[in-house]
């Protein structure tokens, strides 16, 4: 027994000795620390990511391999023996450096010839996985680009490039509105993400944080190209919602009796705990404990509310209220070109039926783009896009009585069945008073969905025209101008008896209108001459 115990201690010691903590730093070829580098042990689930300063720490067994990977760099592997401190210099991906990208001046150059960081995403990659907007499809594809989506309708996600908001540039023209919803991903040829102030020097201070440069498609020379694509996605309500108790109903100190919906006294003000649900009571005709509730029938003789069973009929309120959403996308385009000219026409329609009843949105875009080459030295380009974003109603977000989950999860007990609330007007008071278990603090979700309406109607028109004249083989004159205009019309309908923050509405209707217009022009001389093979 003593020998076995000694052997066990020896084996544990060997395992402890074999496993070690390896720390280090990852840098680029210029010695700049790289944050966000993936450090993995191949064929295992163990790994980590370098911090902002390029540092990492990981537990490794002797003989295992550490693999370092980062966008734009080749993978590096190191076999661990007795090292405890590593310095990894990542090598740039030569294939990526040979790629041709679009610069801030709209000039195509080899990536390795640029003096700043740039990364490109091909438009074909955006078409493979449809998203409501193209920026969502950049997530995970561009190093240093962080995207945080907004829960509100047609609101742009927060876009951060190396911690700051970049400039959006469409065919060389800055778009200061940063409205990504008006751009159809099927119209995108490529996206170049230019990092750093040097990359966006042409646009002045607005481009100091870098730029997301979009190049749209044109007709292809020598052929007629007609394309159509469709995608349909079904959207469930929520991946995960908070668990709620279903044992006790509304009430106050174990007592509940509905009187008039004021939320006071025996109605409990929404506070739980009331009586236990599904209590057996042999003295009632239903066999359950009974009390007056918001949907109790009225005794025709006395005019008083009659008690009904106090049961957990609302266990599936979330499932029963929210609907299956539908996202449909249809795109058609026609393109043609020859040596002298090319043209492309596209039409896209995106429709989304929301998971909240009576909500949907429509986003339609029309794009016309063309190029004319009247002489060997002169090239003319132009494009025009019309975009329409519309919904007659979209749901409120945020914490408070205007939020559906706020009403359903926090303040509606399972003694209330959401399906019973579809008839949301109190009998005899239609258009005046909503019907709910509590009409002082909370809104009937169906009443809110069909009567509290927020409309959104936005029309975008943006276009650009440019010319390039080749003065000599080394000298070009380039001019561009772009126009960006939109009109936004929003409506807010608040019905009578709607509950806001601490007040009951007497009814309200308001309109907000926003107009925007800008024009951007530039004229530049571009000189490029190769002096020798080495310079």
Structural overview:
The protein folds into 3 domains: 2-92, Sandwich (Immunoglobulin-like); 95-216, Beta Complex (Ferric Hydroxamate Uptake Protein, Chain A, domain 1); 224-233 and 322-399 and 450-527, no CATH class. It starts with a helix and ends in an 8-residue tail after the last strand. 9% of the residues lie in helices and 40% in strands. The longest helix has 17 residues, at 2-18. Residues 1-17, 96-105 and 107-116 have low confidence and may be disordered. By secondary structure, the chain is mainly beta. It has an 8-stranded antiparallel sheet. A 5-stranded mixed sheet has the order 10-15-16-13-14.
Task: Give a short synopsis of this structure.
This protein is mainly beta and 535 residues long.
Principal-axes shape call: flat
Proportion of residues in β-strands: 35-45%
Number of helices: 6
Number of domains: 3
**C-alpha termini separation:** 78 Å
Query: Sheet bearing the most strands, described?
Result: 8 strands, antiparallel
Q: Which strand order do you get reading across the main beta sheet? A: 17-20-21-22-23-24-25-26
Briefly note the structural class of the backbone: mainly beta
Low-pLDDT sequence parts: 1-17, 96-105, 107-116
Tally of DSSP β-strands: 26
Give the fraction of residues assigned to helices.
under 10%
Average pLDDT rating: 82
Based on CA atoms alone, the radius of gyration comes out at 32 Å
């Amino acid at each position: 027994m003593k020998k076995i115990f000694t052997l066990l201690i020896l084996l544990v010691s060997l395992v402890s000795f074999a496993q070690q903590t390896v720390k280090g730093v990852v840098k680029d070829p210029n010695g700049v620390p790289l944050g966000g580098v993936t450090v993995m042990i191949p064929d295992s689930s163990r790994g980590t990511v370098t911090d902002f300063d390029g540092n990492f720490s990981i537990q490794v067994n002797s003989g295992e391999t550490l693999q370092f990977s980062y966008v734009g760099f080749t993978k590096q592997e190191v076999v661990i023996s007795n090292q405890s401190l590593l310095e990894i210099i990542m090598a740039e991906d030569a294939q990526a450096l040979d790629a041709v990208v679009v610069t801030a001046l709209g000039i195509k150059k080899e990536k390795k010839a640029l003096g700043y960081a740039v990364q490109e995403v091909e438009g074909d990659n955006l078409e493979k996985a449809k998203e409501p907007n193209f920026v969502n499809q950049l997530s995970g594809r561009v190093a240093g680009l962080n995207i945080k989506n907004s829960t509100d309708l047609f609101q742009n996600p927060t876009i951060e490039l190396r911690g700051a908001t970049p400039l959006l540039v469409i065919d060389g023209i800055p778009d200061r509105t940063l409205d990504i919803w008006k751009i159809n991903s099927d119209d995108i040829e490529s996206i170049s993400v230019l990092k750093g102030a040097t990359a966006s020097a042409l646009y002045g201070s607005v481009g100091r944080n870098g730029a997301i440069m979009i190049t749209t498609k044109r007709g292809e020379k020598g052929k007629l190209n007609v394309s159509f694509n469709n995608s349909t996605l079904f959207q469930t309500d929520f991946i995960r919602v908070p668990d709620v108790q279903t044992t006790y109903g509304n009430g106050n100190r174990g007592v509940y009796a509905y009187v008039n919906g004021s939320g006071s006294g025996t109605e409990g003000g929404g506070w739980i705990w009331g009586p236990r649900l599904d209590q057996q009571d042999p003295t009632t005709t239903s066999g359950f404990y009974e009390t007056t509730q918001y949907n109790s029938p009225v005794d025709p003789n006395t005019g008083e509310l009659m008690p009904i069973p106090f049961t957990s009929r609302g266990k599936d309120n979330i499932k029963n209220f929210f609907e299956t959403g539908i996202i449909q996308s249809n795109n058609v385009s026609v393109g043609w070109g020859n040596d002298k000219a090319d043209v492309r026409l596209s039409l896209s329609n995106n429709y989304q039926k929301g998971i909240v009843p009576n909500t949907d949105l429509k986003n339609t875009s029309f794009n016309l783009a063309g190029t004319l080459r009247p002489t060997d030295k002169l090239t003319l380009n132009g494009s025009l896009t019309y975009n329409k974003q519309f919904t007659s109603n979209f749901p409120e977000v945020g914490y408070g009585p205007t939020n559906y989950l706020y009403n359903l999860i926090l303040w509606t007990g399972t003694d209330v069945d959401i399906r019973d609330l579809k008839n949301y007007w109190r009998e005899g008071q239609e258009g005046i008073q909503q019907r709910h278990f509590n009409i002082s603090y909370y809104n009937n979700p169906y009443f809110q969905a069909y009567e509290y309406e927020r409309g959104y109607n936005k029309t975008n028109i943006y276009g650009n025209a440019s010319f390039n004249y080749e003065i000599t083989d080394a000298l070009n004159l380039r001019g561009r101008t772009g126009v960006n205009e939109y009109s936004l019309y929003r409506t807010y309908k608040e019905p009578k008896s709607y509950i806001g923050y601490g007040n009951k509405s007497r009814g309200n209707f308001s309109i907000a209108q926003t107009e925007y217009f800008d024009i951007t022009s530039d004229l530049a001389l571009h000189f490029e001459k190769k002096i020798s093979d080495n310079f």
